[in-house]
Write a structure and sequence with these properties.
The chain is of the alpha/beta class. The protein is built from 13 helices and 11 strands. It has one domain: Spore Coat Polysaccharide Biosynthesis Protein SpsA, Chain A, CATH 3.90.550. β2, α2 and β3 form a beta-alpha-beta unit.
Length: 361
């Protein structure tokens, strides 16, 4: 596996293409390192898009570690997200929010999973976050294309939505723990607290919602089949959202959890036992056997339901992470000038600048 390396502050697209083509899949297709350069924050610079499918972003400020961050040998915090042009605006906002609220922003290493070779996306990350340490890995869509069953929303059926199942296969072996995050969220607290959670021997930690009607995540056929219904025997299964998880990668590998999830996906192809995308097989394997963390780490459902995406308010209690799970995404609702009230909480992290206001370098 290629090591992290120092990246030049600016790399022309042609040079970026050349460097990427030299790296073989599934090795990281792009990587960069925080260049801890002396001096102040770079001023914002707006660039014209190289592709009509990739938004234009302003450069984010460079956040520096606080005095309490320890030595350079401090263990990094690994964060994994998917990377796609359609959700890039959300990803940029999520990364900014993580760095902005972290005491030790230079301690982060990001692991982006992508389904397609999109050099314009990599170029956007480089120009928006010149100091970000990250790697990009290609997820082979063929691994799940024959395993995906049609769900109630087309976005849930995209192969990249299933990439989280294969984290243990894609990440390098020195990464033994990772925070997996969806791209439709922002963090408003120091995520190091979530990173440091004691998993107590569990393979996954996540907020758990035992008040939710767990039965609705599976069809009547599932519950009427005695063999299938016994799946949760001896467990107290509760809903958890797979868009925010701390995963023990070592335990996931050793326990063969990828294969366990795939087995349920194969059953779904034969029998219609659930309606949603990648969530139900996770529940079938892990519900009732995860480390529950505070609900403030996933204020989810802000995107409304999966069909209409109607506005929803905040749940009571403290908040460390806002998650627009559901059909409605804040950037789309803001652009349509019909935002929900909660979308204004996402807007301060939006680095997008309309192409009509762009300037050439």
């Amino acid at each position: 596996m290629a090591s992290w390396r120092r990246r030049l502050p600016s790399l022309p697209l042609l040079g970026l293409l050349s460097s990427l083509l030299l790296i073989q899949w599934p090795q990281p297709v792009a990587e960069a390192s925080n260049a801890a350069a002396a001096g102040g924050v770079h001023h914002s610079l707006i660039r014209k898009p190289t592709s009509p499918n990739v938004p234009v972003f302003r450069e984010a400020p460079a956040f520096r570690n606080g005095k309490t961050c320890g030595s350079p040998e401090t263990s990094p915090i690994h964060v994994s997200m998917t990377l796609d042009a359609n959700y890039l605006r959300g990803t940029m906002a999520a990364v900014l929010s993580i760095l902005q609220h972290s005491t030790c922003p230079e301690n982060f290493e990001f692991h982006f999973l992508c389904a397609r070779f999109e050099p314009e996306v990599f170029s956007s990350i480089n120009s928006t976050f010149p100091y970000l340490r990250y790697k990009v890995y290609r997820f082979d869509s063929n691994r799940v294309r024959g395993k995906i069953s049609k769900s109630i929303r087309q976005a849930l059926d995209q192969p990249l939505n299933y990439a989280r199942i294969y984290l243990a296969d894609m990440l390098p072996f020195h990464v033994n723990r990772v925070i997996y995050l969806d791209s439709d969220l922002v963090v408003v607290d120091d995520i190091a607290e979530l990173w440091e959670v004691n998993l107590e021997g569990k393979v996954v930690a996540a907020p758990e919602y035992c008040h939710a009607n767990f039965t609705k995540y599976f069809t009547e056929l599932f519950w009427s089949d005695l063999n299938l219904a016994r799946t949760f025997q001896g467990r107290n299964p509760c809903y958890f959202n797979t868009g925010v998880m701390v995963v023990d990668i070592d335990k996931w590998r050793k326990g063969g959890y990828t294969q366990k999830v795939e087995e349920w996906m194969a059953i779904q192809k034969q029998k219609r036992i659930y309606h949603l995308g990648s969530l139900p097989p996770f529940l079938l394997v892990l519900a009732g056997n995860i480390k529950a963390v505070d609900h403030r780490w996933n204020q989810h459902g802000l995107g409304g339901d999966n069909l209409e995406g109607k506005c929803r308010g905040l749940h009571p209690g403290p908040i460390s992470l806002l998650h627009w799970s559901g059909k409605g995404k804040p950037w789309l609702r803001l652009d349509s000038r019909k935002p929900c009230t909660v979308d204004h909480l996402w807007a301060p992290y939006d680095l997008y600048r309309p192409a009509t206001h762009s300037l050439e370098e």
